[in-house]
Amino acid sequence: MPSENPADQRLVFEDSIRSLSRALRGSIVTNLVAATLLVVVMAQHRPWPGLLAWLAGLLLVHTWRLIAGSVRRWRHGAVAAPMDAQRKAFRTLVDATLLAVYWGASSVLFFDPSHVSVLFAWALVLGGTAAGSIGAHAHHPRVSWLFLPLLIGPFALRALWEPVTDVRFLGLGMLLLLAYLLYYGRQHARTLRHLIELRHENSALVQELREQAAALHEANAAKTRFFAAASHDLRQPLQAIGLYLSVIASGKPHPQAVASMGQCLEALDRLLESVMDISRLDAGKITPVPEPVNLAGLLERMVRMYEEAARRKGLRLRLHTTPAWGLGDPVLLERMISNLLSNAIRYTERGGVLLVLRPRGNAWQIAVIDTGVGIPAESWEIIFEEFVQLHNPERDPTLGNGLGLPTVRRIAALLGTPVTLRSRPGHGSVFALQVPRSEPPAAPMVSPAPLTGTELRGRVLVVEDNAAVRDALVQLLGNWGLSVQATTSAAPALEWLRRDPFDAVLCDWRLPGEPDGVEVLRQARALQPALKLAVLITGEDEQRVQMAREEFLVMRKPVRPLRLRALLSAHLVGASGLAPGTGS
């Protein structure tokens, strides 16, 4: 089936015209040899000077373009510019028409019914020339439709005009030959075009395979770099934690060691969260939820978050904004701007960082401008690769982990909001993104009233099959003043729910046997309609987990204590009159 792609059709046409030009070069010699033999046959009945003049005219028809080009180069010393396929096809059509007209007119001019043998010689030469042209003209069928009738038609019609029966039969035979050659030429042209299309399709497939092989090679190399950097960055805090544990195990009080272990755990948590963000974005498991966003309010909040970090480095963090509403996912937008601000502050030693919101056509542009180290133009692409840090060859964890910009690019692709970069080494960088304009929502967004109390009270059921995680959760929740019952699987958890009231259920997704955590939470709500909080805890992004988000709150492992406490505070402050304690 012919390709519907205009670009493919153009390539096939250009290839056909190139092949046509090559094929026609060889036909000149054949044509002149046949004409010479015809002159020899006619010389018995015609004077030589007229025949030689006719042969010279045929040679001129074949070579006049070459002669004209040589004269032009001799006079002007200029080489003709290469022609495109369309122009070359038109010139070929003109040249073929001139040649066919010359042959057709000559066959009528030299037509002599009194010498049938000469007429048969003419018929033989014309038929041979016509048949020989099929292979070349099949590359451009329009040439055949002009060349063949103009070549054979005049001789055939002239023969049919004669009253001599043999001559008429010769004319009829030439018309039948013309019809056959036109049909055969059309079929041959179709076959040839199909072969050329197949060749281009095969070439495209080979090129695609080469590109895929190159992409696979690059992906493997990137994966190797990714795991090498990730293993290094993961090993550092783990090694430090092991050393601090040895210090604590000595029996002497070391409060600084405990604090340092906490910092190492926070660094490890941030790195794991960044790696999981990259993984979820690559797997397409994050779906943006566009809504009207108060961009000015968002940027003001971001500046408040980072002004202390800038102040500690002696930098000025400024904001130039205007009232504006944009259409986007507020969580993902905040993540992008947060990563860009964090990078700007991290790699700026003098001057400051400017966060700008300004109109750009039908969109709002958000730009992060810094006076930092800058980025060479040849590195503008690679800085968006995982774990690439131009100014941190020692992999100093205080300078980040090299996952901020890769996350920004992936979120930008997900939102359809490309990130642009302008930078000069030693002068700073400008990262900018655009957000489509939006009208403010009809009703103002009302923030929930702040919680007035901080004491946690209530009874919590923990369903977790990992002993270490389960015991840590029990101790942590108990220290917060909650009564905790813990179990390892679904069956005992459901028994507890049938027997005793609970205020909250924290359940792992993957549990031994059946059912899984999603089903446990569904039955928990069915068994206890007054349940205030049902949380699914998992580190995965399977489809079932994505669907569960519509029913339950989902917390990703590793669970951060501050987030967990904030979630419990929102639901369990003063939840019940049960005495605080821990369950077995």
Task: Give the key terms.
single chain, about 575 residues, alpha/beta, five-stranded mixed sheet, five-stranded parallel sheet, 15 helices, about 10% strand, disordered C terminus
Protein model, in words:
The chain has 584 residues and is α/β, with parallel strands linked by helices. The chain contains 15 helices and twelve strands. The radius of gyration is 42 Å and the shape is elongated. 26% of the residues are buried. The C terminus is likely disordered.
SSE arrangement:
Elements: H1 6-42, H2 48-76, H3 85-109, H4 116-137, H5 141-161, H6 165-249, H7 255-282, E1 291-294, H8 295-312, E2 316-320, E3 325-328, H9 330-346, E4 352-360, E5 363-370, H10 404-415, E6 419-424, E7 428-436, E8 459-463, H11 467-479, E9 483-487, H12 490-499, E10 504-508, H13 517-527, E11 533-538, H14 543-548, E12 553-556, H15 561-572
Parallel strand pairs: 2-4, 8-9, 8-10, 10-11, 11-12
Antiparallel strand pairs: 1-3, 4-5, 5-7, 6-7
Helix pairs in contact: 1-2, 1-3, 1-4, 1-6, 2-3, 3-5, 4-5, 4-6, 5-6, 6-7, 7-10, 8-9, 9-10, 12-13
